[in-house]
């Protein structure tokens, strides 16, 4: 039986890795390790299909080391012993250990000395946060790298390569892939290249050849990846229009419209995009008017990511209604943007001497920290002293809004402090 297209198209070296340029690009950490022949064990974590196994096989291909694959959940200590014996006999072995977060203590204790000696270079792969799920003994002997969801352009590049590669890909098939079908293939799989390539292969091999062509339309790709498309125009503007409409509907407190656009994104399978957009909305549009809504958004997003679609729609619907009906305020980030604008115009100024770091020998001679008044030593834990640089000392960025009880309270405190500045010496 022939191996799946996603397996056949795995990169043979770092130059063939799709995406993850923050790790394998020129001058980046994993490429530096390979170029310097100074590999160390590592853990790659991120969503399925984003290239963890691909990076491991590319490292092995770039270094010419033996490459073995095991699963921490299903393979036994004896399987690890076989890899260790191979490493002892023939030199370094790169071991891709999938589901590394499920490594039990017996296997871990066996593996640790081999990692320390460098005979086995372990590349652990996991979809779980390693800082939470992986034993500290393993973490301390590895470098941890996050593998990010692939971008649309990354998947388009990989699809094009698969369609033209005659040795490993589908280059011997007379495939004609419509533009809207290709675009949907790059989006509907949520950055999962494995799903995109396997869906493409299924479509190619299950579509009859007509007049010397295998014509893959949008409906064919929808069926093969089991994700319905949003109504796209040729450039995909409608996709981004729906995302924009979701945020603007929430900002405008229209629950029904927001749920409609959420539904369209759910039907398209765009979980990652939905979660990211809702996090932005929680802080950008709700902000200080209702900070608890932003916290609830974070929790809903975590639940949605853990559940996956279709169940993810349940916490997503709840938080969209919550955000829609919440009071709104953009005061905090608007104030920051004004401060950044001043900085970019050269209005930064020097930090006042009494605020500068004084925790080093000779600081007093430089007048660093001299005259600083510790607010906790004063009534109301407040003392009238200058904090902004001289050229900005009368500047006000924050303008509180009265759209929520929390920010109303902040506004009263802000007004009180400004009054104190005028009256208290």
TrEMBL record:
Residues 38-150 form the AAA+ ATPase domain. Gene3D superfamilies: 1.10.8.60, 1.20.272.10, DNA polymerase III clamp loader subunits, C-terminal domain, P-loop containing nucleotide triphosphate hydrolases. CDD domains: AAA, HLD_clamp_RarA. InterPro entries: AAA+_ATPase, AAA_assoc_2, AAA_ATPase_RarA/MGS1/WRNIP1, ATPase_AAA_core, DNA_pol3_clamp-load_cplx_C, MgsA_C, P-loop_NTPase. The keyword Magnesium does not apply. It holds the Pfam family AAA_assoc_2. Keywords: ATP-binding, Nucleotide-binding. Belongs to the AAA ATPase family. RarA/MGS1/WRNIP1 subfamily. This is Recombinase RarA. It comes from Candidatus Enterococcus willemsii.
